[in-house]
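Interim report, section 4.2 (structural modelling).
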Amino acid sequence: MNKILKLLIWTFILFFLLLIVSAISLSLGSVEISLKDFLFALKNKNSIEHDILIKTRMPRILLGLAIGGSLSICGAILQAIFKNPLVEPYTLGISGGAGLGVSIAVFFKINLLFSGLTVTLSGFLGAMMICLILFVIKMKSGFKNINQILLTGVMLSFICSSMILFIMAVSSSMDLQAIVYWIMGSLDEPDINLIYITLISSVIILFVSFLFTRHLNALQLGEEEALNLGIKTEKVKKILFVLTSIITGLSVSVAGIIGFVGLIVPHFVRLLISRDYRLILILSFLSGAIFLIICDTIARTVISPIELPVGVITGIFGGLLFINTLMKRQRDL
Amino acid sequence: MNDIILNVKNLSCGYNSKIILKNINFEINKDDFVGIIGPNGSGKTTLFRAINKIIKVQKGEIILFNKHLEHYNRTEIARIVSVASMSNYNIDIKVEDFILLGRLPHYKSMQIFESKEDHDIVFKIMEMTDISKYNNRYLDELSSGERQLVVIAKALAQEPKLLLLDEPIAHLDITHQLKILDLLKKLNKQLDLTIIVILHDINIASEYCNKIIILNKGEIYSAGTPSDILNKKAVKDVYNVEAVIDKNPLSNKPFIFFNSSERL
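Predicted structure of the assembly:
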């Protein structure tokens, strides 16, 4: 009973915070819109402010919500599956695969032949390639030896980044810029449909993974313990692995490599609120969304009109915040 | 009349191609308190894993409550058999939350939160095992004796009919050793719980168990009541230690006195 209450209270608090942060983020930017004008602008559909709010800033916030939420949930799930606090959605090489896909597309100028979606699509294909390779390896060795899969993923990640470096070394300076810009990650996505797809899939993973909370709680105790508690660990890991891979692949291909969110947000929730996965998943989703929206707002306002890559801010801001929290709390991760 | 709840016939099993247990045959009756003893590496834990269907039976068969083990799915087994293994849980989870995890096998298919009934059962078990006072403590803060009780409580929360314990009293002082075994004896009598326990202390096994299985090199050396099977020859054959057997004056159960090799 009291777990449900705790979950509801925290969900409410974080949801409220998300609204406030979104509102502040909406009003900040090269054109500042004060709170008074803000409501006016929302109502008045013909003003320039309305266009800025709805067409420029709103999509960014929605994408921040979707990407921050998805990455955080994927991180939380993977940390439980691998029973390793250092795992994040990019550890398994999914981001590397996406980066390689994009680099190849840019290098061979495939992106210029077709529509703007090509870069996203090639990133997604690259990510799914890695996912497929890992899955085939897993089919052979079984999900029991989970560390072997983890190491294989890390190696694939290294191979991909070396190949990206190779492509960058032989690219023209214009292609180079395109690749670097993509790798650093950004919430600037012109295609509104893509944003909706990302948003919907992030909500789907939230609901689906919530059905697996008891399995994740049991897995925290270890493989054999989970089996003793009647959990079909192989099956659960397989489902969750595929699910997180697809969602991570989608996030990366839409927004580039925004690091750190998937690593630290679940830890924040664990440190400050609970290590019960029934709370971790939803609260990570909301916290991740808040965190990424804040970082993106900083990234586009701090030295405006120049926009910093959001990955830079998540790294610096998140890292400092996390060390600070860690110092205050003595409990183990 | 005793009902046989576990029947192991001609069992061979192990990990991948490495066979650990060979040709194991034994029966366990309802309300038995069985001790498994044997040197390190004799296959005691492997036997537990086989009974709990964590590893595959390669030859022979295991019949649990008149049903072949293969016909059980994971959840069904977890509702009948629970394992209290003493692996070190250095995870900071609250004691009550940890014990509540024992209720997982009884969850309905879409259930996310524990029901009132689950809380009541856990409350009762914590009273029974005398750990209500640790309610708000974290698992990694407890001493090993306290933690052992908590681990047993979690296994009991599964409401098993057969409880398997893997070295529940290892590394404990004599007070805690007896406290845990007295608790197990009480559970055995009051809840009609059948217990199989892996022990290293032969004298403790002799005191508490109505039946002992001696495992040696993956095979059963002997099985029976303590007074039938605990003798000088068995200790010499299995442990390669010289010993004298006498009777515990308080209980009349066999008691083993060991001889250090220096004195020989």
